[in-house]
Amino acid sequence: MIHTALTETLGIAHPICSAGMARVAQAELAVAVSNAGGMGCLGGASFMPDALRDQIAQIKKGTDKPFAVNLLLPDALTTEDDRQWAPVRELWDSLSGQERTKLAGIQALLTPGAVADQVQIVLDAAPAAVVLTFATPDWFIRECKERGIKVFALVGSMGKAREASAAGVDFIVAQGTEAGGHTGYASTMTLVPAVVDEVDQPVLAAGGIADGRGLAAALALGATGVWVGTRFIASPEAYGHAAFKQRVLDGTFKDTTITFSYSGKRMRAFANQWTSEWEASEAQTSGFPGQYAVAGGRVEAGYQDGDLDHGMMPAGQTIQLVHEIVPAGQIVEQMAAQADAILRQITPQA
Ligand SMILES: Cc1cc2nc3c(=O)[nH]c(=O)nc-3n(C[C@H](O)[C@H](O)[C@H](O)COP(=O)(O)O)c2cc1C
Question: 234 CB under 6 A from ligand 1?
Fold first, then answer.
């Protein structure tokens, strides 16, 4: 068993967390990971408030172990200034009814007030941890501390790591550019030790980790645990069409690209017709979060319909390493056992 500050603080068996992947990481996946001794994370950002409440209730029914919820709380999403929402509303109004039915997972980010409601639901539910991406507002961290909720910040740069550290989060997740989803420029191999040197908080490694070798390497870089996304897409508990999961199994290093077409922010996703047409078009990004309205319908095209050419499907470089669908609990157990064996082998006991 590998003990770290992460396992001690949260009271979990293994220093392994599943990432809060919007749409993909629903209650079933979070429950499986937490029950296996890791910390499962609900991709909370994609749920409208009632659905979020329901998902958290499902997790609580499925496990009494610690779990986390991911939220996105940049000012652009929490502002009550109605004028700032005008461009988003304009885009939303321009969508056809059919397009809107495909917006599951994006609607909460395009609906004024929805993110504020998500916040209240999560604070009331008091999960063991909340994982924040993009921003770490003081007011929210204060509320979490009052309730004993640990705050993790997912960062992809030194600037964001410093900002999160100064804001007083409990853990920093340093995510390298190999990762699926929104991502920065530095590799995990370089970002993790740089962040470890920079901040006082324990640091988790994210991006490019798919097995026990990745976990052992992350610990050697000074990380207290790992934050894993893409590997868990290829589990029965992850939400997503079989064709999307198969794409992960078949994928190679050449199959992902960096695109701004999803949210207006830099992200790694499967390269396909949609990403290359967007790149080739004169289209300028509508910025964050407005670009979500442009790309929103693409999300369920991939996840729900399995349309690999036109779907927007974040995925990381570990698609090269993932070859089979494995139950999420087994992914956790195998990763922990393999890392343990490697660490014993390279550090013979006296
Ligand atoms: C399909 C997918 C969806 C993601 N959605 C989110 C999200 O909603 N919020 C978030 O903080 N990170 C999201 N991420 C990034 C993950 O949190 C995590 O940092 C990343 O997957 C780790 O790298 P890996 O994919 O190499 O394991 C997503 C990643 C993937 C692959």
Answer: no
CB 6 within 8 A of CB 202: yes
Among residues 193, 190, 195, 198, the alpha carbon closest in space to that of 222 is found at 193
Query: Which residue type sits at 308?
Result: L
Ligand 1 binding pocket includes 26 (Cβ within 6 Å): no
Per-residue pLDDT tens for 19-36? Answer: 999 999 999 999 999 999
Q: What is the pLDDT of residue 153?
A: 98
For 5-239+324-346, the fitting CATH number among 3.20.20.70, 3.30.465.60, 1.10.468.10, 2.60.40.10 is 3.20.20.70
Contacts of 51 (CB under 8 A, 6+ apart): none
Give all strands of the β-sheet with 16-18 in edge-to-edge order.
Answer: 16-18, 225-228, 203-206, 171-175, 150-155, 129-133, 67-72, 40-42
Which sequence spans correspond to the domains of the chain? 5-239+324-346
Structure tokens belonging to residue 349: 């006991």
Question: Global pTM?
Answer: 0.95
Q: Which atom of ligand 1 is nearest to the CA of 133?
A: 11
Q: Which of 16, 18, 21 to mutate to test the pocket of ligand 1 (most atoms within 8 A of CB)?
A: 21
Ligand 1 midpoint to CA 348 (Å)? 35
